[in-house]
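Quick one before lunch.
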Amino acid sequence: MNNATMEEQISGAIVRRFFKKFESNLAVDVAIVGAGPSGLVAAHDLASMGFRVCVYESKLAPGGGTWGGGMLMNEVVVQDDAAQILHEFGIRTEPYGGGYHTLDSVEMASGLIFGALKAGAVIFNSVRVEDVVIHEGAVSGVVINWNPVARLEMHVDPLVVVSRALLDGTGHPSEIVSKVVNKAGMQVDSPTGGILGEKPMWMEDGERTTVENTKRLCPGLYASGMAANNVQGGFRMGPIFGGMLKSGRKIAKIIAEDLSK
Ligand code: 48F
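Model of the 48F complex:
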């Protein structure tokens, strides 16, 4: 090692440390798909409670729909009661009046990511969850591959990580629940047993139902944020983020209770 060139040392450091991180997370308590605001709050809360938490994010930059504020104007709005969750991450907000706070979207995205990591969650970015593992009627893990492999449609087999709980935080498409319903043919806890699909814009109702719709869907599977709303047929709410933060907090509590039984 001492005689190694700088090039060997740097490459070796990255490869060894990455594979150490990867290998120690082949079986986790909670696998979270999607590093949007709801997934990141859930990751932070569950890791803070001592659970082994891995987040898989298909994009290079975690943060989901946070970065762009509203129509690329990089300010975010949250309700007064949700601002407290951001303050716990050390993220600053400014009272706006009318029951709302505003904050910088870049501070929100970076603060949520850093908060989840500092709490002990591990984030694998550029990794796409392409399928789920089912063992005897229970959702039991994720099938993962590099997102560039998926985007280039390369014929490359994936790897698998087993989980005690799997959270769909994939936002509007609820991709993971879709695999469970449409590919595995399983029923989930919704009015039809399937995915009702998101309704158009109604901010107030969408914010309320996002939190109400956040729940365990079947053994081993949970949904938060817009994924939860899509499954239960809730309205979309656009650039107001309090419901996402509260949804992440709610699902972390539900998962923690289930895993502690
Ligand atoms: O959509 P997203 O930000 O999730 P969220 O927590 O928050 C929704 C809000 O951002 C916004 C809104 C607020 O009012 O309506 O839309 O519900 O983040 C979802 C993340 O999941 C990733 C995706 O790249 C995004 O960063 N993702 C989606 N499918 C996969 C995935 C997949 N199969 N594997 C890995 N990551």
